[in-house]
């Protein structure tokens, strides 16, 4: 089996009936790059930038961030690298943020909510990202979105950052893709409106499951209730893909569910454009894709989801 997987390296991810899908990797630290390259991922679909903040005693500087982003972009040699902006919250211990203690941190002050209230912190990260953008092919992705207004605020800040860099004669790429995570039910439901604002969506099934089913993803006691195969989740994913495509926005999945081999045919049937999975799962997913004959199963699969 391992030998079979080895042979997939360098090959195209194409189904028996000719449908292609991009298979990318998720990483959380710069050294994870070794596994990404070893497993021949087509790109990085989610680089969680939290490590920069969690591993530091104070706010990471623009320079520190720039070096990390540059390293990853250079190593990927022009393949798309999607870096997600800060996604911490009251549940993650980052003392210097001095976040208030919360009863219900998963539904609290976290991720983009912090960034929009702390434009200084947000802009430092965006400056580092745009400065690094000339070293490869960059996508920037924003977590925990619930509204169009948030995305418009983000885009305004992005424009400010670009104008500042221009004024300083600092070069940056003009093809940086901007995307958002679809990981709240609100974002999934209004994904038709959101699609008009961004280049891509990446569905975060870990949080989407937590918030849709009202099940704390950290609570082991609730394991039996945490069911990402729930029809509500699959219907939301299907809807998000349809809404994205209506407006020319490509759609990926970067939550754990993207690597579930029992759903590969389902995601292909929905027309998902990209699956981003942990590096160790990349070749397994690619094998599943090459075994699939989507045309044969698509109608039945989609009908069973809609009920
Ligand atoms: C998700 O919520 O599915 C996701 C990919 O983000 P994280 O697991 O980092 O919350
Ligand atoms: Mg998430």
């Amino acid at each position: 089996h391992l030998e079979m997987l080895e042979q997939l390296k360098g090959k195209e991810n194409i189904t028996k009936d000719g449908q292609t899908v991009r298979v990318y990797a998720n990483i959380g630290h710069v050294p994870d790059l070794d596994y990404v390259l070893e497993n021949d991922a087509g790109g990085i679909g989610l680089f969680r930038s939290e490590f920069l903040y969690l591993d530091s005693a104070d706010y990471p500087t623009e320079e520190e961030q720039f070096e990390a982003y540059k390293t990853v972009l250079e190593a990927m040699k022009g393949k798309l690298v999607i870096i997600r902006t800060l996604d911490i919250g009251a549940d993650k211990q980052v003392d210097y943020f001095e976040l208030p203690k919360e009863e219900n941190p998963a539904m609290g002050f976290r991720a983009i909510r912090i960034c929009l209230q702390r434009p200084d912190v947000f802009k430092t990260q965006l400056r580092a990202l745009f400065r690094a953008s000339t070293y490869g092919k960059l996508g920037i992705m924003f977590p925990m979105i619930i509204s169009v207004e948030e995305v418009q605020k983000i885009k305004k800040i992005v424009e400010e950052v670009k104008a500042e860099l221009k004024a300083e004669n600092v070069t940056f790429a003009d093809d940086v893709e901007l995307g958002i995570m679809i990981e709240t039910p609100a974002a999934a439901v209004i994904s038709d409106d959101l699609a008009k604002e961004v280049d891509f969506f990446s569905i975060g099934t870990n949080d989407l499951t937590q918030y849709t089913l009202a099940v704390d993803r950290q609570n082991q006691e609730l394991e039996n209730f945490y069911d990402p195969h729930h029809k509500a989740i699959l219907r939301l994913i299907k809807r998000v893909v349809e809404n994205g495509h209506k407006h020319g926005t490509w759609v990926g999945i970067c939550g754990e569910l993207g690597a579930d081999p029992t759903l590969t045919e389902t995601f292909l049937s929905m027309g998902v454009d990209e699956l981003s999975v942990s590096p160790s799962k990349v070749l397994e997913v690619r094998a599943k894709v090459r075994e699939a004959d989507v045309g044969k199963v698509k109608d039945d699969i989609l009908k069973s989801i809609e009920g």
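Strands lie at 22-27, 44-48, 80-84, 137-142, 177-182, 200-203, 250-253, 274-277. The chain has a mean pLDDT of 96.
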